[in-house]
Design goal:
Length: 285
């Protein structure tokens, strides 16, 4: 039976021992965690994988990638957060990303965890952990996080560029899916408009607000091993910025994915799997 936990953002987070799933309801929006359905788990391992998606993405975006490295884990969980926007785009009026994520991690069963977080989800994770660490988070694997080291870099030009690039970003996210390999220009334009309507300008403001707060994060306290991955063709992220992020984390490395954009788990899964396995081997030594 699924466990449903209704938690107001001001309520204290709590750890629950559950084997099935958990749900968080705040206002009219929901988040939930459930087992990550992979076939290749290794019962001899001690690590659990936790998958966290980005904005307007399904938790399933990580599954094929994590199936390739499932032998490194004894089990796993995936988080479905309201910023997938399936229930609407005003989720940020109910709670901040931190307030959505904290009860999710507090509700996961105990055990050593490696968290895989993508894009906006990676930013939300860093924001949470620098304020509320969890002892059983053993390592982080961050794909395409948004980061700039100083507030001075958040200029009007950057703001306009981020808005202007959003349509191209959405188009890219559609094109990289296998089913969209032969999509016509007209069909692509219709899908882009549909995604933009689903996402809403308000969710975009939530993204930029979190992005613009990244220089203030106290990253020095996050001493777990961190692997940062970034595509060398990402439209919206500059590898130099992620080098600054890696430098501010006590135990981080940055790896670039060749011929890859924002969605490395879809575009370059084999290269990513190799880098993930190398990272896990190093931290387990």
């Amino acid at each position: 039976m699924n466990a449903t936990v209704a938690i107001h953002p001001s309520a204290s987070a709590r750890r629950c021992e559950r084997a099935d799933s958990g749900e968080l309801k705040i206002g009219s929006y929901r988040a939930h965690w459930s087992p990550l359905p992979l076939s290749g788990y290794n019962s001899q391992r001690k690590l659990h994988a936790v998958a966290l998606h980005g904005m307007v993405e399904s938790p399933a975006i990580w599954r094929d990638q994590l199936e390739q490295v499932a032998f490194e884990f004894c089990g796993g969980y995936e988080l479905s957060m309201p910023w997938h926007c399936d229930d609407g785009h005003l989720w940020g009026l109910e709670a901040t990303p931190d307030e959505w994520l904290q009860p999710m991690f507090a509700g996961l069963p105990s055990g050593k965890k490696v968290v895989f977080a993508h894009s906006f989800g990676a930013c939300a994770l860093l924001s949470l952990l620098q304020r509320r660490p969890f002892d059983d988070i053993h390592a982080l694997i961050l794909l395409s996080p948004y980061y700039k080291p100083t507030f001075e870099e958040f200029t009007w030009d950057l703001f306009r560029r981020c808005v202007g690039e959003f349509e191209a970003f959405v188009a890219d996210s559609i094109r990289i899916r296998t089913s969209a390999a032969r999509i016509s220009a007209a069909s692509l334009a219709l899908l882009v408009d549909k995604v933009k309507d689903k996402y809403g300008s308000y969710s975009w403001v939530e993204f930029y607000s979190l992005y613009a707060r990244m220089p203030a994060l106290n990253l020095a306290m996050l001493d777990m091993p961190v692997l940062i991955l970034c595509g060398d063709r990402d439209l919206s992220i500059i590898p130099h910025d992620l080098k600054a992020l890696a430098d501010r984390l006590p135990n981080a490395r940055l790896e670039l994915l060749a011929q890859c954009g924002h969605f490395g788990m879809v575009e370059q899964p084999d290269a990513m799997a190799a880098k993930i396995c190398s990272f896990l081997a190093d931290i387990e030594e």
